[in-house]
Amino acid sequence: LTLSSQVGGRLKSYLGEDNTETLIKYVDDIYLKFGAPNKLYGIGDEVDEIKRKASLVELHLIPVPVRHLGTEHCCSVLKAMRDYLIPRLEFKLEAMASTLIVDNGQVKGVETEAGERFDCRYLVLAPGREGADWLSTEETKN
Predict the structure, then answer these.
(1) Based on the number of CB atoms within 10 Å of its own CB, is 109 exposed (0-12), middle (13-18) or buried (19 or more)?
(2) What is the pLDDT of residues 52-69, one digit of tens each?
(3) What is the tens place of the pLDDT at every residue in 18-39?
(4) Most Cβ neighbours (<10 Å): which of 31, 81, 83, 109?
(5) Are the CB atoms for 42 and 65 separated by under 8 Å?
(6) Which among 22, 12, 4 is positioned nearest to 64, based on CA atoms?
(7) What does the pLDDT read at residue 125?
(8) DSSP collapsed to 3 states, the chain
(9) Percent of the residues in the chain that have a pLDDT greater than 70, as a whole number
């Protein structure tokens, strides 16, 4: 996990720096709760010294704290998250969403390409990069 709003992504442009940092801390705390290692990489005296040396040749190093999960921790952390969520919500994996069901500006469900309809109070979509254009189109329609 990259724990800085200073590099990567555009979340800061949507939420502002303070809200982004708050959200990063919130997500990091969740990962820790589910067993992520406490150790952070990318910070400390050694990084400070590299930053100082970089500045001597007019380079700007942005230190970024990283919580490295690695294969050994990633599987167990994600399994713990899944085990926590399974009794609390319904997963529908590998289903292609086709239409968001919206009422008065609120998402009330989703219809799949197979014609299944799922009404819901809350909806988490994970369309990936392939579905990003579709999601943008759905958002514009509603």
Answers:
(1) middle
(2) 999 999 999 999 999 999
(3) 999 999 999 999 999 999 999 9
(4) 31
(5) yes
(6) 4
(7) 87
(8) CECCCCCCCCHHHHHCHHHHHHHHHHHHHHHHHCCCCCCCECCCHHHHHHHHHHHHCCCCCCCCCECCCHHHHHHHHHHHHHHHHHHHCCCCCCCCEEEEEEECCEEEEEEECCCCEEECCCCCCCCCCCCHHHHHHHHHHC
(9) 100
The pair of structure tokens assigned to 12 is 């800061």
N- to C-terminal Cα separation, the chain: 33
pTM beyond cutoff 0.70: yes
Nearest 5°: the CA angle 86, 89, 95 is 95
Q: How far apart are CA 68 and CA 86, in angstroms?
A: 25
Cα 102–123–5 angle (5° rounding)? Answer: 110
| pLDDT tens-place string over residues 79-120 | 999 999 999 988 888 888 999 999 999 999 999 999 999 999
